[in-house]
Amino acid sequence: MEGKNEDPEICPLKNEEEKGPENSQCISGQKDIGHRIQSKISHLSSWRTAAFFITLFLCLVVVFAFSFILPCPVRAVSVRTWTRTFHNAGTYSFLTASDINKDKVVDLLFALKGSNSSLNVSCSDEGLPSPCGFLIALSGTNGSTLWERPVGKDILLIKCKLQMHDKTSGCVVLEKPNIITAFDLDTGHLLWNHTINLGSNATVLNPIVQLPDMNGDGVDDILLAFTEGSTINGAALSGRDGNQIGQVVIHNVPTVTGFLLHKTNTGSHYLLVNTGKLVYGFALKDVYRPETASLKQDSEWLKKKTASNSTSDYVLVYSSSDVRNVLTVPGQSPQNILALSSSWTELLNGQNLRSLWKTNTSHVFNKPTFGMFKKDQVSVVIEDEYAAQSKKVLIIDSNSGNIMWEQDVISKPGSPQPATISTVDHHSVFLFWGEIQSQSNVTVPYDEKHYLFAMHPKNFRFLLQLNNGTSNIMAFDALLFERGRHACYVLLTGPSAEEELGTVSISKRKLKEDVVYSNVIRLSDDASSSDEDVKQLFLNLRFSSETLSKN
């Protein structure tokens, strides 16, 4: 049927009997129109095909460029276990961790005393006598040296991860006799150094304290404090350039055994000074010279000061027959105060100073550590020496003061403080040193070895013995070297810098590697799980980078 493709408006339909010349002309014109339309469609189709292949070609070029031409970032490959050894050296009980080279793997910084370094840097390069103190930064991936430099004749105090100028993270080193120096934590480059005028009978107080920004230059500042007779003197130094910007003077204070900076809920700063029997709180506003408008007193603490003695310059924070240590508890609001004495471990409300709980302890000889025995609840880990060569490892709930776990351990001279590492299930793995008594209550023969044990709250009737050794342990910590992987512990061993020089060793050991070869110890008769099940619990753990701050 030829009329089937005709335009109905131009050429109306006709039956075959009505066909004539006029209708033939209409059909011929329709064919011309059809040819033109088909020609346009053909040209359009060619353009579309060309555009498709050009787009495809450009996509392939981009993929090729990103795959083969442009360099891809190379992820650092961490060695699970490594050890670095330094000969003819001594070391300090200082160890800290930070991502120094920005490869998303935690690196290590420590200090030793020696004549030369692994990078052929000597004490004489900085005009220092040999041997001298070195700061050394090691890569967390493989233990290679990132930087190292001589920092002083002998090191008294080190404080790292302080805010410096241009948002730089820095380390401050106080060396004998009276020189304080700041270094860039990432590069080891010198930031500033100054001589501090200390009296001939002055005793430097530990630690170096980071102050709020006292001179308004946008950088937090530093307090270096020392005692001379019954007076505490403190030099406030600019974090930006190290220049002295003020001083702290506190008169008529007996022998000082420790101090720290405490911040109340209202943002007021107080220096807590431990004299061994009393803990005094001095408002930074009252003892800092020249006066700074940004400092203030807490109204609640001011009332306590006035109520106790209108002429006193302090608030009585705590009293006991023998105050061993005072520190703040992380992860709580207000920032509560933990006081340890010869008879008690007591937690004080950081705002109103009321006692929250008190637990009987006899002789806490190591600095407490914090972890999570219960989900999302801060726990205090202390070591209480109750007899000669015997101690209890106690885990105390910081909310109630209840003892949630305890274990008798043979105490070893020089054992480091416990450590914890967080897991994604909002608990912690607890690590401590000592030696476990046998199940028959017969003490395992005492030797010179240190034994490292691990415990997880989900299986607290078991311990894993991970490691042992005879070396003198100067520092120990547990760290997550990479986000979501490589939970490790770090050991720094060797002679003290004050002793005769020898061999210093620093090692990183992956926790799960040691779990495989560990010994399982049952703490009770109803501990029915098999050794394989206990190990598998640890091997299945996933670790969290969220850690409780260390005081």
Provide an overview of this structure.
The structure is a single chain. The chain is mainly beta and 551 residues long. Among the domains are: 50 residues; 189 residues, no CATH class. Strands 23, 24, 25, 26, 27, 28, 29, 30 and 34 form a 9-stranded antiparallel beta sheet that branches. Strand 32 and strand 33 form a beta hairpin.
Count the DSSP helices.
Answer: 5
What share of the residues does DSSP label as strand, in percent?
35-45%
Give start-end ranges of low-pLDDT stretches: 1-23, 439-443
The oligomerization state is single chain
Determine the N-to-C terminus distance: 98 Å
State the helical fraction. Answer: 10-25%
Principal-axis shape: globular
- The whole-angstrom Rg is 35 Å
Keywords for this entry:
551 residues; mainly beta; 7-stranded antiparallel beta sheet; 5 helices; 34 strands; disordered N terminus
Short description:
The chain is mainly beta and 551 residues long. Among the domains are: 20-69; 363-551, no CATH class.
Topology (elements, then pairings):
Layout: H1 21-69, E1 82-98, E2 107-114, E3 132-138, E4 145-152, E5 155-163, E6 169-175, E7 179-184, E8 190-195, E9 203-204, E10 209-211, E11 221-228, E12 231-237, E13 244-250, E14 258-263, E15 269-274, E16 278-283, H2 284-287, E17 288-289, H3 299-308, E18 315-319, E19 323-328, E20 337-341, E21 344-348, E22 355-360, E23 369-371, E24 379-387, E25 390-397, E26 403-410, E27 419-422, E28 428-436, E29 450-455, E30 462-469, E31 473-482, E32 485-493, E33 502-510, H4 511-516, E34 519-522, H5 531-539
